[in-house]
Design goal:
The complex is a heterodimer. By secondary structure, chain A is mainly α. Chain A contains twelve helices and two strands. Classes of the chains: A mainly alpha, B alpha+beta.
Chain lengths: ~300, ~350
């Protein structure tokens, strides 16, 4: 069958292009504009070329060093929370009830942390973890463990990681639960007939069926954790010292604290490109896995 | 390899059920002999799958015993029963190759690798899967996936029985024939009990040497295909098996006479009629013949279906629809006509159950 070709169809794409232009491209271009200029106020701008970018990417400069350090913190943070939240989410999903009134109760309970605004989550944990009046901080200190997230970098990290796990594991768990629910009973029955162990059921039935939702969960949790700002800002303000200063916090300091619009613009662009690049890698690797497995049947 | 007995078996999906309507399976006693090829035939929702799942242990019956060679296994889990089951829709382990899929039930039971390999290749050859053994199961067609499911059912050499739960539903008609003949051949070769659930009478009659007909949670007849055809034990069997099904006509019967539509038919046997029951006579269309008006029972011809080899008349006897054969000699006929019922093949039913008459 011949497909009709008519280039006038492109006109139908125009509204979308217009919307995307106003919502994303034009604002982004103003950032690009700032990133190649310097300003001393009074709306006076001076051409700086790639100066900010070179400074940003050179770790020997003050700015470059700060960017490099916060980038590593970000990557470490994302790696840690993915390593905790994904297995934990799977485990929680496996333990969730499959039928009866408990399902609704569990779902509501699980969704609760997801519904709390981010700055409120930060405030909750800021108070909860305080050594003097916070339930958690006080208890931990009474147990003989020296815990003070304001003074000790390790304690600060533990606090924001536990907070993020509390806040977001439900998301992974709910996604996995949806994946698990879509497995027909016949699979479990067949596994019993085949004499499969509990581990084999997980390895060969549940995990493969959860693969798709896990891809989504990993992408969402990576992007979100890599862009994290509000919660650590509220709890630790980036401290003690710079120990919990992530890229986003650094960026806000630069743009609104020092009002270095040029540097901040250049940094946002680099930040954006890093996220795009990592997501692209994730996406490509995962879709390629799929392609490899879905080769069309060869004719015998 | 085992003889399977069901003793006072019943099942209800409700707790504490007492009314007969609550039972998906009404109390039954049934024996499946070792090495038999059985078909479990009945319409959707009649309890076939429930019965199958009880035999395989996926379901624990509410009451009664399941005996494998005399040993009660009703409360043993599936894994301990040594039974294989194939489901209606293909179940394959996506991430495994076809080979690993077939080897899975054997490896789980700790069979030696050499024996596994030999067995897998044997079954793959039987099912024409040899060329695909190293492929991932994920990308295969529904046909091929169902073949893998069948293969996993057949691969274990020592099972008490292999249960098939409408296994060919998703398969193309052409391949369906092929696979069914293969199963039949396998049954002969392996000497293993096979129970084949289906709602398709052709499938049941071609596969099985014994057909178990179920209706509304009850086993209504167990018999060879020809017995089901010639002497249905229940009007439901008569109606469900045969195409078209048996004609069932309300009648009153006294001794060896049946009165239908103001005509009297002489029967070969005489019957003691229990009072207060609904009495019907049943006759297959194959043994009912259309005739000239005035002969036999008066009927109205609704239409004549030309089936190629033969013609089938759709008739109306008073308010009852009846099907009958049309002899070639009869030519075109319409309006009123006569219907001759061959007395050798008339059965009498009380409340649906066959009455045995006295000679």
């Amino acid at each position: 069958m011949d497909k009709p070709y008519d280039n006038r169809a492109w006109f139908l794409v125009l509204p979308v292009l217009a919307i995307v232009a106003f919502s994303a491209v034009i604002p982004l271009m103003t950032v690009v504009n700032y990133s190649v200029q310097d300003t001393f106020g009074n709306n006076q701008f001076f051409w700086n070329g790639t100066g900010w970018f070179r400074e940003l990417l050179d770790p020997t400069t003050d700015l470059g060093g700060r960017v490099r350090d916060s980038l590593w913190r970000n990557l470490l943070f994302s790696a840690i929370i993915l390593a905790i939240e994904v297995p934990l989410g799977i485990a929680v999903a496996l333990a969730m009830p499959r039928e009866g009134w408990k399902v609704a109760a569990t779902l509501v309970l699980m969704a609760m942390p997801l519904l709390v605004p981010w700055n409120v989550v930060g405030t909750i944990w800021q108070v909860f973890a305080r050594g003097d009046i916070g339930l958690l901080g006080y208890t931990v200190n009474r147990l003989g463990i020296d815990y003070n997230y304001v003074a000790n970098p390790l304690a600060a990290w533990v606090t924001i990681i536990v907070m993020d796990v509390w806040h977001w594991t439900s998301l992974v768990a709910l996604l996995c639960y949806a994946g698990l629910k879509s497995i027909p009973d016949a699979y479990y029955q067949a596994a019993r007939i085949d004499g499969a162990s509990r581990w084999a059921v997980f390895r060969f039935i549940q995990l493969p069926k959860m693969r798709r939702v896990l891809i989504i969960a990993v992408l969402l949790r990576f992007m979100d954790s890599f862009m994290i700002y509000t919660e650590p800002f509220v709890v630790t303000g980036g401290g003690p010292g710079n120990s919990t200063t992530f890229l986003s916090i650094e960026l806000v300091k630069l743009a609104l604290g020092q009002f270095d619009l040029g540097k901040a613009a250049a940094m946002s662009i680099v930040y954006n490109l890093i996220i795009l690049a990592v997501c692209w890698v994730f996406y490509t690797v995962m879709t390629n896995l799929d392609v490899e497995r879905r080769r069309p049947p060869t004719t015998a | 390899m085992a003889r399977i007995e069901l003793s006072d078996l019943a099942h209800s999906y409700k707790r504490g059920a007492s009314a007969p309507a609550d039972f998906a399976l009404k109390p039954m006693n049934l024996t499946w002999r070792q090495g038999g090829a059985y078909a479990l035939l009945g319409p959707s929702g009649c309890g076939k799958t429930t019965l199958l799942n009880i035999i395989s242990g996926l379901l624990i019956p509410s009451q009664g015993r399941v005996l494998f060679d005399g040993r009660d296994v009703a409360h043993l889990p599936t894994e301990k029963r040594n039974i294989a089951q194939v489901f209606q829709f293909p179940v394959v382990y996506d991430t495994m190759s076809v080979y690993e899929n077939l080897a899975f039930p054997l490896r789980n039971r700790g069979m030696a690798p050499g024996a596994v390999d030999e067995r897998v290749r044997e079954i793959a050859t039987l099912l024409d899967l040899t060329g695909d053994l190293q492929r991932k199961a994920r990308g295969l067609t529904a046909d091929a996936k169902q073949k893998i499911s069948l293969g996993r059912g057949l691969v274990r050499p020592d099972v008490a029985a292999i249960l098939f739960d409408e296994p060919l539903t998703v398969i193309d008609p052409q391949l369906k024939w092929e696979l069914r003949s293969k199963l039949k051949a396998l049954h002969k070769a392996l000497d293993v009990t096979m129970i084949y659930v289906t709602h398709d009478q052709t499938e049941a009659l071609t596969f099985a040497d014994t057909v178990v007909v179920m209706h509304d949670g009850r086993v209504v007849q167990v018999g060879r295909p020809d017995e089901l055809f010639e002497k249905p034990a229940h009007t439901f069997v008569g109606y469900f098996i045969g195409s078209p099904g048996m004609n069932v006509i309300p009648a009153s019967v006294a001794g060896n006479h049946a009165h239908v539509a103001e005509a009297t038919i002489e029967l070969r046997r005489s019957y003691d009629i229990p009072s207060g029951k609904r009495i019907e006579i049943g006759i297959r269309p194959e043994f009912a013949t259309l005739a000239q008006p005035g002969e036999g029972l008066p009927v109205t011809v609704e239409r004549i279906d030309d089936l190629g080899r033969s013609r089938l008349a759709r008739l109306r006897l008073r308010e009852h629809a009846v099907a009958a054969g049309v002899p070639d000699a009869l030519g075109d006929i319409g309006g009123t006509a006569g219907l001759i019922l061959h007395p050798d093949h008339i059965h009498v039913y009380a409340d649906g159950e066959l009455l045995e008459g006295r000679a």
